[in-house]
Amino acid sequence: MIKINKLEVENIKRVKAVKIEPTASGLTVVGGRNNQGKTSVLDAIAWGLGGNKYRPTQAERDGSAVPPYLHIVLSNGLIVERKGKNSDLKVIDPNGQKGGQQLLDSLVEELAIDLPKFMNASNKEKANILLRIIGVGDKLQALEAQEQEVYNKRHTIGQIADQKAKFAKEQPYYTDAPKEPISASELISQQQGIMARNGDNQRKRQQLTQIQAAYASQGQEVSRLNALLYEANLKYEQLSKDLEIAQKDTLDLQDESTAELEANIQQIDTINRKVRANLDKDKAEADAGDYRVQYDALTVDINRIREQKAELLNNAALPLEGLSVEGGELIYKGQKWGNMSGSDQLKVSTAIVRKLKPECGFILLDKLEQMDLQTLQEFGSWLEQEGLQAIATRVSTGDECSIIIEDGYVAGQELPEEKKTWKAGEF
């Protein structure tokens, strides 16, 4: 794991002459008041290791007659220098072989020297970086897309079920209504049948009246026409038989009432309205039940997909215990990025950046004054535990600072007046 063993900076931005040997593991805090050169130290390291895209806009210190000089010794023996009028880069390996920016790029993670680039990225970009590192980005993205699709479908089903249930609840229900709508033509047909049967009864009554009249007339005829008694008696006997039959036929006759049918015909619209209302209520309740079954089934699918996501992340080599991705965002100890403490944000960022290029064992951090002393100590302890090196700046002159920068120098390293002219690379 590559770390920074030694650093010499001269005449870069606000730095006049600074020499630092950062602690190998843990936090090296460069302290001092504002505008003393703290951030210039970090900018010099970024320029030295990250290439000319990190070159300060005005690299040379104002008022300096000597060009910028930068000398970095890495733990793997590499020596990185920028010096001369053009601040040319020179990289020398332990065997004396020369290299260049390409060699540094292969060893140094860009985000390690530009951590704000990661910390200021969007929540989705941070999560995508982590997922790309652990190699599950495509699978997780597919599962999340599947989960969103099922969730949207379930949401729609739930809304329909709620609407159906609400509609069913608001519908009146008539217990006195039949199960099916009444047909007017059917009622009229029933009425016509009853009327036909009643008409037949009337004909039979008329026939009885006629027979009774004929019988009476014939009796008179018998009295009047004794001469025709024989024929009259025969006919009379026949009429007597007919009379007996007619009396028997009409004895138990009873006319049917059409009053109920007439009332139903008159109230058919009211009855059918009740029937339709009952049918609508029954169907809405049935539909609501069906949609609830679908909703529950989709809930099972969503839970299954979420279990697959959790299993995917649980089996992945995450760079920090308690770190995960949910809904396309980083989650650490149950908190999203915006709710993490400053210390936790730095831990997460450092762990992810380290995972990007495990051989790069250091990071640069600016403006750690946002941390209180306890949080700073906790972060430093975590760095030591992980074997990581961090070089950071803090607006402070307290004991938590490893060195103090004053007016471009390390406090205690200022040169005497007579020695404040030097050659590049020589204090």
What would your notes on this structure say?
The protein has 427 residues and is α+β, with helices and mostly antiparallel strands. Among the domains are: 4-108 and 357-419, 3-Layer(aba) Sandwich (Rossmann fold), CATH 3.40.50.300; 184-279. It is built from twelve helices and 14 strands. The chain has helices at 38-50, 101-107, 110-113, 115-119, 123-134, 137-170, 184-224, 229-251, 259-266, 268-314, 342-356, 373-386, and strands spanning 4-12, 15-20, 26-32, 69-74, 79-83, 88-92, 98-99, 323-326, 329-332, 335-336, 362-365, 389-395, 403-406, 409-410. The strands form three sheets. Strands 2-1-4-5-6-7 form a six-stranded antiparallel sheet. Strands 11-12-3-13-14 form a five-stranded mixed sheet, sandwiched between helices. β8 (323-326) and β9 form a beta hairpin. The chain starts with a strand and ends in a 17-residue tail after the last strand. The model is unreliable at 416-422 (pLDDT under 50).
Quick overview of this protein structure:
Residues 6-274 form the Rad50/SbcC-type AAA domain. The protein has 427 residues and is an alpha+beta fold. It contains 12 helices and 14 strands.
Describe the SSE topology.
Blueprint: E1 4-12, E2 15-20, E3 26-32, H1 38-50, E4 69-74, E5 79-83, E6 88-92, E7 98-99, H2 101-107, H3 110-113, H4 115-119, H5 123-134, H6 137-170, H7 184-224, H8 229-251, H9 259-266, H10 268-314, E8 323-326, E9 329-332, E10 335-336, H11 342-356, E11 362-365, H12 373-386, E12 389-395, E13 403-406, E14 409-410
Parallel strand pairs: 3-12, 3-13, 11-12
Antiparallel strand pairs: 1-2, 1-4, 4-5, 5-6, 6-7, 8-9, 9-10, 13-14
Helix pairs in contact: 6-10, 7-8, 7-9, 11-12
